[in-house]
Amino acid sequence: MKRKTMITAIATAVMMTTVVPAAFAQTGTPTVAAPAAKSVDAQAAAGNALKAEAAKYGFKSDLSDLQLVSTTNTLGGTIVRYQQTVNGEELFTHQVAVTLDNAGQALLVTSDYVPNLTVETIKTKKLTENEAEAKALADLNVTGGASAMNSRKFGYVVENGKAVPAFKVVSHNGEAEVESFVHAENGKVLKKRDLHQNVNGTGKVFNPNPVRTQGSATGLTDNSNRDSTALTNQLKAVTLQGLDGSGYLRGSYVYIKSKANTFSSTNAFNFTRSSSSFEDVMAYYHIDTVQRYIQTLGFTNVNNRAITVNTNASTQDNSWYSPSTKDLTFGTGGVDDAEDAGIIAHEYGHSIQDNQVPGFGATEEGGAMGEGFGDFMGATYEDAVAPNTAFKALIGEWDATSYSSSNPPTLRRLDTTKKYPTNMDGEVHDDGEIWSHGEYDMAQAFGRDVATKIILQSHFSLTPNSGFANGVAAIKAADQALYGGSHLTQLNSIWAARGL
Ligand SMILES: [Zn+2]
């Protein structure tokens, strides 16, 4: 940016002798537009306009703290923009814009200039840019160090009528972009804001799946992904929160990446299940909802990021979380996996655990705990959305119509008689039924919220090689930390029943 000094220097060359004060700008018969004013003349005219308005807005008579930012020719005239400065540094976000018509006549002055500021001085030591950035990132709970994309700039912010020295730090974390103002001496984050414009959209989903909401699987079949009246009847209208406004299914907690590349300029995403976009909407809505639920429990650092989700990205009847890319992938074999919220929440469970303890599940027991926790997440989510005792301890009833012979169909049960170690067979999904049963019993005994809170808290205490015994110890420690151990007696009996 160039300093504003040229304005006063050129002021003598003004072609105008009078400036229409903005408040009294006349509206008359439109005249034929003249070519835009030359920028030199425009700056001079704008300078005169500012001087004419100085008393009204409190500008200094010499305009010495207004720095020229830009001169922009537009269809309807020229806009000359200034930045308010303090000690030659930017007073963040405070600008003045002068609008000139095509004849170079001042039409309007728009100002967020703050007059008569007292300036806070740095008494001992000014933070370095790196220190300021570290403070901003710590405040946002961002781990893993600074990103090369983060930007830092020294200037001033207005706080309680004072100009306070501060660094503006714009940090990037996943899809999030946050502007923080950090006090340049004490490192306190004075204010921050999310730079992404989040909007809510609308969409239609199965919630959690058509078998649960219909009350049975009768008449519901995949039929090679075709629509049917029975399935369309189970669509529910929902609000899609936190979209970034791009028109794509990208938001605070979910970033959909798919061949369908689903887009809506009005953020209205109404599809039936035969459309590939339907799975995009399902994945967005349910993952966003589960993450928001976790945050209502008080956890702001459990997988709090925009997770990339590849829907319909495999023709297998399988879905997975990748610990290397940190992405989720949903397959289309049988019923498309992302048509069932139980399956979506299960997979999201894997990403939660890896986020809390990177590398978790290095042992067979750890793997089984991962599958069991995923089933707990899926089943308790389904129970919360569509409570119905006929589906107690079941998960993924719609997905399961293509392979389960039980009635209602289910991916697995969370109430098997399996015990440790007798019924271990070395396959993580099978052995996960021991773990999911214990966790599901916790939800029955304490309610979903308390159980989920204890379980999520317990994950933080684990290590990549943790097994069942470590998991139970961590659950009891979490209950001690969160609830003073008030659930210990029940926890003892719940886990003893599973042989743990
Ligand atoms: Zn799994």
TrEMBL record:
Keywords (A to Z) from UniProt: Hydrolase, Metal-binding, Metalloprotease, Protease, Signal, Zinc
Domain FTP: 68-112
UniProt signal peptide: 1-25
Xref: Gene3D superfamilies: Neutral Protease Domain 2
Chain intervals with Polar residues compositional bias: 210-226
Protein's UniProt keywords contain Transport: no
Identification of the protein by name: M36 family metallopeptidase
A family per Pfam: FTP
Location of region: Disordered: 199-226, 405-425
